[in-house]
Amino acid sequence: MSVLIFIDQSEGHIKKSSLEVITYGVAVAKQLNVSAEGIVLGTVANDALIQLGKYGVQKIYHIANEKLNHVDAQLYAKQIADTATANNSSVIIISQNQTGKAIAGRVAAKLKAGLVAGAIALPDTTNGFVVKKSVFSGKAFANVNITSAIKVISLNPNSFHIKQTEGTAEIVTVNANVAEPKVKVTAVNKVSGEVPLTEAEIVVSGGRGLKGPENWGMLEELAKTLHAATACSRPVADAHWRPHHEHVGQTGIQVAPNLYIAIGISGAIQHLAGVNRSKVIVVINKDPEAPFFKAADYGIVGDAFEVVPKLTEEIKKLKTA
Amino acid sequence: MKILVCISKTPDTTSKIAFKDGNTKFEDAGVQWIINPYDEWYSLVRAIELKEKDASTIIHLVTVGGADCDPVIRKALALGGDEAIRVNTDSSDSFYIAAQIAEIAKQGNYDLVFTGKETIDYNGSSVGAMVAELIDAPYISLATKFELNGTTAIVNREIEGGEEVNEVALPVVVSCQKGVAEQRIPNMRGIMAARTKPLKVVEPTVVDTLTNIVSFELPPAKAGVKLVPADNVAELVRLLHEEAKAI
Questions:
Q1: What pLDDT digit, counting tens, does each position of A134-184 carry?
Q2: What is the DSSP letter of B240?
Q3: What confidence category does residue A192 fall into, taking pLDDT thresholds of 50, 70 and 90?
Q4: How many CB atoms lie within 10 A of CB A59?
Q5: Residues A159, B66: Cα–Cα separation, whole Å
Q6: What angle do CA B44, B45, B49 make, to 5 degrees?
């Protein structure tokens, strides 16, 4: 028996969300008193994999086939399910990031395993196998019992703290047959230099209160100072002031950073649904009646155009102190 | 071209979320039910656009749920689509739901299965992937653009930190989000036509349920906001650094 952790990589680089699932999977393995094993698909340097042992994973199956350098839901799911079966894994852990959304359901269906998608806590095994997950777009949680023998959990990004100790992982190189991908990737457009929104520790978000796209400079400056990702409310994305992939809320992206700074956003229920798993929320709004203040930890009632540049300046002072 | 559009009924986005029966059931009193926005705004509308380009296209809608889903599926038919199929069962288990849809998909021999990127109630983002696995078709998740070139689909999809363009031969399962289409409002003609469109009710295929919801809970209430005067931004930075340890 083992817990199998899918360790997602991109261009040979192990993602932060992968370190989260390793930490989580190791904790689940400890709970069940079984070994924590990982699976890596595609080309990654062996040294980088050995290093992952310091997050507690004991053994990593590495299928270094070049056809797996790119995420293909069908090929990935087959390799993960085959590895789980070959090694008698009873629990499979996957991040609920973009890759996870493409493959977790496939892996679960292949293994006829119950899936909890979007888990935010460790399973409770005192009475069954109950996993807490986010539902109603962050407005509530559900405790879901998995009744099948094999279980798949996909973990929401930024919901489990990475724990680093010591150790090295044993790497098992697996030669697997990999079919030709049915999906052809003809172009990849990555926004370079920006912090991906769902992985960001800090998010700086702007709303209609900023009056127009030309005023985003001060917000970007603040984000840069904090090494934060930028986001926006739905009206802002709908008005094309900002690209839609920055839209945070119930029908946009749900984020759970350590710090969410909302500038000129009133805090409609749909927006709050996308951000209320943030650990600390700061609201800057000139309307003291803005509903967002009720969901905030800290707030400033004031004009964003005055407050934000000052805030950037004070943070710069702190960083250089 | 035959398209299957998966439709789910969800509470309206402004619904206050509460639970009953010892926090084991969703409190549906006073809740307005809508078509899951991703299903409606993006996958259904894109299917309708494809039919507008090629009139020979057939659109079927499928939903898994009880008779209380009928008003929502009629609303979907008012936007477009030729007929609807409701699998008469209810479950919160994504595998069970996916297996029902896969059964319909197999029987109907569809070229294209559209889902929304997730439902706004359970947020699993997993049924599309499961359906694809169960019918052994490729799955393209989180699509932001969808085009057809003969029997090849050209799809932009969201990846971490950007987008990629995929080309795949039909049949394929695609989960749709913003960018694929624009929201439409049903017109009177559509609403009238929807009344006479076929809504077939079929009984579920026998499949195991692999998960069940034990209970729900609401997030803990916030302690209350600490307000800092606008002329003392330094104090906010101090609090974020020393008290919240967030920067």
A1: 999 888 999 999 999 999 999 999 889 999 989 999 999 999 999 999 999
A2: I
A3: low
A4: 17
A5: 34
A6: 120
Q: What is the ipTM of this complex?
A: 0.94
- Cis omega (within 30 of 0) on the bond before B37? no
The pLDDT score that the predictor gives to residue A138 is: 84
Does residue B38 contact residue B177 with C-beta atoms inside 8 Å? yes
The number of residues making up chain B comes to: 247
Walk me through the domains of chain A, giving residue ranges and CATH numbers. Answer: 2-173 (3.40.50.620), 197-320 (3.40.50.1220)
Mutate which: B96, B155, B236, vs A, most A CBs within 10 A = B236
How many of the other CB atoms lie within 10 Å of CB of B73?
Answer: 23
The residues in B 74-113 lying below 8 A from A, measured between CB atoms, are: 92-95, 98
The single-letter DSSP state of residue B15 is: P
Query: Measured between beta carbons, which residues in chain A are less than 8 angstroms from residue B14?
Result: 269-270
User: Does residue B214 sit in helix, strand or coil?
Assistant: strand
A 10 A CB-CB count for A309 gives 15
User: What is the C-alpha to C-alpha distance for residues B146 and B165, in angstroms, rounded to an integer?
Assistant: 10
Give the largest CA-CA distance in chain B: 67
Q: Which fold has domain B2-217?
A: Rossmann fold (3.40.50)
Instruction: Calculate ∠ Cα A18-A20-A25, nearest 5°.
Output: 95
Measured torsion, CA atoms of residues A303, A305, A310, A312, in degrees rounded to the nearest 10: 120
Question: Is-contact A80 A40, C-beta < 8 A?
Answer: no
> Tokens at residue B90, please?
């209810």
Task: State residue B222's pLDDT score.
Answer: 80
Q: pLDDT tens for residues A210-255?
A: 999 999 999 999 999 999 999 999 999 999 999 888 999 988 888 9
